[in-house]
Design brief:
alpha+beta, Nonspecific Lipid-transfer Protein, Chain A, 3 domains, 18 helices, 13 strands, metal-binding, iron-sulfur, 4Fe-4S ferredoxin iron-sulfur binding domain-containing protein
């Protein structure tokens, strides 16, 4: 439901959109848009937003443009200091906007660009606001195949902030009717893990495992390496000295991204595109080649599509097999994570239907269909299954976390199969994370 441009439900006068935009620009934003709390694009976040600020009527979304050459550098310290500085700028601009509004008697709250998040909900939805969705809804850009917002003017070199306010405004944004993405596929060529498919497919697990190695689950895996090590010599076999000091750096000076090459090479946006059109070959030589030619370690889950991709595409880059720490602790989290950790390359040739019946603390009936390297997850049981799996939900989650033995679970009937076990093996191959 779109609010009428008169007075809102709290009988507060609508704020003038032009005035509010100028206020945000003066506070340091480089572009601004507005979205109603009722918009469909807010559906995924609305409950969280209203729990945080029940009075929210409008989301103010704005972008800060980054310095491009830092992001493009193969020296990741240069890129990361720009990311951290832009993050700080988002926070400072958000606080200025809120301070100005509060001084005028307008209730407002700024939200985190990235971190901190609601880590007590890990590995579920730990964020409150999906900034990219909101920015897209407000007309500040479109999502490219690299899953980043491409601003019409500033391209991919933007960070996004969101402020919640308790007023409606006189004019709201709408999505732009074109995509600034050039479909040049340079992000596909530059991605060291193969996470970005030329057909638009995105492998979340591949990107997360490498780029976020020193965040969240990757940090947890490092801690478990320490816990599992018998002594310092054993630890050094598991973790190199450079990895140890890199983790120290992330702990001391904010977490560092391992790649983000998709942003670095993107030529879209009015301010960015001239260099690309001036000489495409030179653009690739100067910006793409240093990243693809860089000798570095790529972190992969054993048996993942990323592991095979790196060996095939980047023979000069090393791979290191790790756990990405993605362990669902609830049945809902497990089911929601399936599309994110599905490895379509590992499913090649598989056509199967699985019926899951979960019992115990959490109960559910679910159908998972894998066919033509695509995944479908449905509530309840549909179709004729190749395999029926009946499992106590806690035992199943413990098995996924490698805390329970599958053999033990089968022998004690905590997990029961109806059909050939080969189908379960094939299923597991599709989800190595």
């Amino acid at each position: 439901m779109t609010p009428q441009p008169t007075e809102n439900k709290t009988n507060k006068p609508n704020l003038d959109a032009t005035w509010l935009r100028e206020l945000c620009l003066n506070a340091g934003a480089h572009d601004v848009g507005f979205v109603q709390i009722e918009r469909p694009e807010v559906d995924i976040d609305r409950d969280d937003i209203l729990r945080a600020a029940h009075w929210t009527r409008t989301l103010v979304t704005f972008v800060i443009k980054m310095n491009r050459e830092n992001v493009r550098s193969p020296m990741r310290s240069f890129a990361n200091i720009e990311f951290h500085a832009s993050d700080d700028q988002i926070t400072e601009t958000s606080r200025r906007i809120v301070s100005e509004l509060e001084a005028k008697g307008i209730r407002a709250m700024h939200t985190a660009f990235g971190f901190p998040m609601e880590m007590d909900r890990w590995p579920g939805k730990i964020w409150v606001v999906s900034h990219k969705r909101i920015a897209e809804a407000a007309g500040l850009g479109k999502m490219g195949i690299h899953r980043n917002i491409i601003h019409p003017k500033f391209g991919s070199f933007v960070f996004i902030g969101t402020v919640l306010i308790d007023h409606q405004i006189t004019d709201y944004g709408t999505q732009i009717d074109y995509n600034p993405c050039l479909t040049c596929k340079l992000c596909v060529a530059a991605c060291p893990t193969g996470a970005i498919g030329s057909d638009g497919h995105f492998n979340f697990a591949a990107c997360y495992t490498h780029n976020y190695r020193e965040f969240m689950g990757g940090f947890g895996d490092w801690v478990e390496n320490i816990a599992d090590s018998k002594n310092r010599r054993d630890y050094r076999k598991r973790v190199t000295d450079s990895e140890t000091v890199s983790m120290w750096q992330s702990l001391s000076f904010e977490s560092n991204y391992k790649a983000a090459y998709c942003l670095a090479v993107c030529p879209a946006g009015e301010e960015v595109i001239p260099l690309y059109f001036e000489d495409k070959r030179q653009f690739k030589k100067d910006i793409v080649k240093p990243l693809t030619a860089k000798e570095e370690t790529i972190y992969v889950v054993p048996g993942s599509d990323a592991e095979g991709y790196v060996k095939k595409r980047f023979g000069h880059k090393k791979t290191k097999r790790i756990s990405n720490g993605l362990r669902p602790r609830t049945l809902r989290a497990f089911l929601e994570a399936l599309p994110l950790v599905f490895e379509r390359g590992q499913s090649e040739g598989l056509s199967a239907t699985y019926h899951f019946t979960f019992t115990g603390k959490e109960r559910a009936k679910t159908t998972v269909i894998i066919c033509d390297q695509k995944l479908e997850v449905h509530d309840n049981h549909i179709g004729k299954p190749n395999l029926r799996v009946t499992a106590d939900s806690e035992i199943w989650l413990g098995f996924l976390a490698k805390e329970r033995s599958l053999v033990w679970a089968l022998l004690t009937f905590r997990i029961r199969l109806s059909g050939s076990p080969k189908w379960l093996i094939a299923f597991g191959k599709c989800f190595p994370s």
